[in-house]
Records
---
Amino acid sequence: MSNKTQYQLTQEQAKKAIKMCLDNAWSYLEDADMYIANNRTEHIAIPIAFAMEEIGKAKIIYDKIEKNNSKILLSNDKDGIYDHTTKIKKTISLIELDFDDDVGEAVMIEQLTFGGSFEFEYFIDQSKISDKIKQENELKDIGKQGHKIRLASSFVGFDATTSEPKIKKSTVDLTKLIKALYQIITGYPSSFNTY
């Protein structure tokens, strides 16, 4: 990171920056996939958190493009382009599960017969919708956990009670996040429309 914390970008530069951020995030997710493939998930929070930060930075820039027609002014102080928490929050706001198939499965049709004619009544199985919302919220919580564990899982620390050396591990399955993050990237720009 340079000392400069304010930048004025053209539309072209901003679009290039978004593409670079998303390409970089994709690369981090591929790194996470390698950890999984090699059954070495101790440090999986690191590439996932970095991917989330790059997606978040892309979202910050995207929002600026949507609000301005000419020059895009980016500032770390105002926009948080170098702030880990701000970028992670931006990414977490993008995590959405596709409800289309689940809504279709949640619609139940009941055939009613009245005097020889048939009518249909439609019901929504609220439990299926509720389950999907719970899954989405769980992914968002996992995203928050990934950011918190990112640095702690990078270094050997010491247990507060026993003084035993240890590397902090996540208590949640961070691999669940990977698919959702890939979907955000492949869904760009529509996945960034959260207004």
Note: Residues 6-192 form one domain.
---
Amino acid sequence: MPLGTDDDVWQIDPVTAHVRPGATLHDPVLIVVETTNGVARPGLVHTVTEICDFLRIGILAVNDPRDIPEQLGAKQPIAVLHEASSVDCTVYDLMMIVAGLDIALPLLLVIPEDPQNRGAVETAQRLWQLTDISPLPHRPGIRTLIDFLFRAGRRFGRTGPMPI
């Protein structure tokens, strides 16, 4: 059930603001696509785990983007992260899956900077009408990841007080 539906709204008591028993809350999830067949280096999940734990964002790690809808279930994705050495079938599959989930779902795509990759990403972005793709030529640092996650979280109203 996506956020913002009538079922989601009515599971919170409007008088007491308590969640009704049996209500299913939708925790934010970052989808990390890690291919291990030489297209991308493993380790993106390791890079984002501590940040996501601190921000209380779940991680869904998949090896094939075509597994995302099945493994996602009722979880609410806030963003997608993927690293590739070039735009290949995996990247196209991922962009098509993201478009099927939500054309505004933020996608951080770590891909070498060259004209062919840039053109392929821009073409696929226009083809599937994706509105929030952030290509990076190298793995993001902590500051870039936090900025990306906060931008993604704001889209879903998930930027309340931080735990300290």
Note: The first strand starts at residue 28 and ends at 33.
